[in-house]
Amino acid sequence: MHLIAQDLVNGILAGGILAVVALGFSLVWGIMNIINLAHGAFIMLGAYTTYQLFTSFHVDPFLSLPVSFVLLFALGYLIQRFIMNWVARAPVLTTFLLTFGLSLLIVNIALNVWTGDTRGVTTAYSGANFTLGDVTVPWAKLFTLLAALAITGVMQLWLTRSRTGRAIRATSMDIGAAQLSGVRVTEIYAIVFGLGAGLAGVAGTLISLSYALNPSMGDLFLVKAFVVCVLGGLGSVPGALVGGLVYGIVEAFATQIDVTVGGQHISGSGLQDAIALVVLLIVLIVRPTGIMGKATA
Amino acid sequence: MKLRLTAALGAFALCVSLAAPSAPVSASDDTIVFGSPVSLTGNLTKEGHLTQEGYDLWKNYVNAHGGIKVGGKTYKVEIKYYDDESKNDTSAQLAERLIDQDHVNFLLGPYGSGTSFTVAQIAERKKIPMVEGNGAAEKIFNQGFKYTFGVLSPAKRYLEGILDMARSEKPPAQTVAITAASDAFSQEVAAGAAAYATAHGMKVVYSNKYPDTATDVSSIISALKQTNPDVILNAGHLQDALLVQKGLKEQNVQAKAYGYSVGPDTPDFANSLGKDANDVFGGAQWSDAVKYHGSPGFYRSAREYAKAIDSTYHHRADYHNAESSAACLAFQYAIERAGSLDPAKVRDALAKLDVTTFYGILKFDSRGLNVYKPMVVNQIQNGRLTTVWPQFTADGKPKYPTPPWGQR
Amino acid sequence: MNPATLKRIGLGGITGNPIAFAVVLALMALLLAIPLTHNGYIELVFRNILMYAAMAYGWNLIGGYTGYVSFGNVAFFGIGAYCSAILATHGVDNLLLYVLLAMAVSAVFAAIVGFPVLRLKGHYFAIATLGVALAVTDIIANLDALGGTGGLALHQVDEAHFSIYYYAMWLVALGSMLGTYFIARSKLGYAFVAIRENEDAAAVLGISATRYKIVAWTIGAMMAGAAGAVFAPANGFIDPSITFAIDSNVFPIAMTILGGIGTVAGPFIGALLLAGANELLQRFFVKAHTLFFGAMIVLIVLLLPRGLVWLFGLRGGARAWLKSLSVYKA
Prior knowledge:
A: mainly alpha, two-stranded antiparallel ribbon, 4 strands, B: six-stranded mixed beta sheet
């Protein structure tokens, strides 16, 4: 019984990070129709930003959140403005390929800057925990979850209430109409791509608290971002949160499957990805646009 | 029309340049050329670099001391590297390139069991001997390959020393929990440890695997915690070792000993975790505390070797360095004994090799695996790696049982 | 886009530019000589190009012609490879049987998975296919009978007859290329393009979208499966990380786009360019090759957003090319 409660907590804590990992990716895809394969590289850069601030200036990882966001936002904005913009009207796969090239470029530059050494951000409070009944909760992961919830909330508010946010949503619905009503599409695109990168940076910062850093770390999270954003519904802020939590909880519970059938050991933790993906397929068959997605794609 | 012509010519030109013959690495005939695909990019970059350092240190030593004597003639040594991007398949392709295009004399192994296995396949097909020091999975040596030799102790032995140590301490450890990454090497390590524990009267209370791409292992740790084991063992790699160690602290899992197959021996482990890395045990192929008296031709003791690594690369000698240099040494002695650069003769000399070096004994069983060299156990004590097992080589006593989290 | 529009912008009808196709056929004829004139390694380089070409053709049918972007075609390559390995471990030593079984199993698997997955639209389809590929990888990696992550070793022919794998791969690539050509010119091809351009309108014209999508997806799967079946014994050893590699998933897509999506020449030209450039860079830049590889992709996309085949059909020289670039700028 207590294991069930503990797994639920583990799943929610892991899901919070996944939600932020997927959020920026989902927005860029949903709004701009760009499948950004450089998202993992941006996550890695965010994590290294935190690492560098932490080791060189003893800045607490949570305090480096805004720095990661701003730096990565700027990088994303510039990439969209000066590189991606050249093929903005090309078919979706053209930009897909462009971001694949960019990702290779960024990861290998990082390899030259930081070498392939594995690095970690270990604070005075990392590993500190409290118990609630039988359930152990690590403080750092709890704060990571709270930060994830706060970021999701702010994004949702900003997209629905602010002027720029509304312009972004108008652009995603109908470019032509948005342009006619005075929205500067190139600017909006640069902002959205910057936002996606900034959110990846934030995700990187949060990840650095629990996962060790190396230049190729981003790819693992990129694959999860793909699944989570579609699970919840593409381009939807609450969708990313729901998707992340569902994914985290499914993986946590999958771990406890542990049986042997006819000499074949079936380890749920060994199969955790497959189980999460089967859940994704079932969700898509029942709801073809994700859990929170709108009826029309 | 012009563009069309350019495009067509470009396609032909690319084909021609791909198919163009390339000159061998060394034009002179008084150089022995070794080839090695190593991980210079990708997720095993760090380990690839350590491997390369071990190879280069040997090469520089040999060249500075004249070279290798083969039947009255002295040869300089050259090593040709390619980057296998930490991918099994790329490694094998590069081995083919080294043999067919660059005409290397011999192969030095890549980093990792997966890559070593695919390269072994090529070595066998092309009949070019390979000595490797970084692929410990026994699978490599159970295929009947005649041209592959490994200087390391097999995977199943990685965690045995930690179990021996924990059994002999007071109070003796009785229960073991094992977590392992899903890759072939880690699975062999875990199976070996479980079999060894059971054979020596210990009880394996938990055993499970996770994908080697896992980014979160907290639920495995929750399940493990319930079994309340005396010894917690992990068979994996640096990244997941860090993930497990962090997770154990987060859920406040207290055991008498924590042991890892890979991780604690790399400085990155202690650098990443700080105090939380203290008192952790790691199985190692070698440490600078081992007390062998090596044959002439290279640094003759572990201390001398460690000093050379430190003055050349400015870090503590790692067992990946040592096993890589040892692979080169096996070639050096075998080539001298064969008195020839003929691949088949060098292969036979390797099979008969029996020599003691700074790294330990170099001798291969009929499968090509060095089962004669014992492993050591290191423990991180106050941030410093100390060899604690077996007792006759130890430079410190094991700290056991491990104090609670927060007091390390 | 109807065929007339395709022709106007230089893509040259439903099979793409005919000159580009002629160039590709000429190159294919030349490649037949490689084992006679070159060493084993060069043979391997070109065998890989042919293998990627076959996979790219497989992807091009569903992603290029039908317009359904799949991120899961690597699953068929892997299934094909495992079919060979299973036959090999049961003592069957016949390359033709390997290929036939692989094509059959890939086709059956594609058809079964296709029914639910091809109902999804656009991005949701793309991710569902990625999910299928990753799930298959994970399941095989956990099956002890298939060697798990440790993989399976296959018996190989001896060094003297090794070129048989090269010629087999050449045939698979040629078959995929000619298959694409004849399918594109048939009614099937026009139905695929109709679905790509407007699925609803196609339905009005009486084209059963689901049926044609499954056909495109299944034929593409057979191409990838055949490539995998030849790859496994040629490589001598397979494991999930090799047969379901991310590279084997992304490269065929990248090759098709760089070569020319929805054309017959494009996948081969893209495979030659990308695999060839990767090989040359790796040869000359031991450490920085991936960096340059990334930079090269970025540059090609920016300079040739419609792929290389498009150069063959462009009229008016360099000026027309520069002018056309601004079309895609926001």
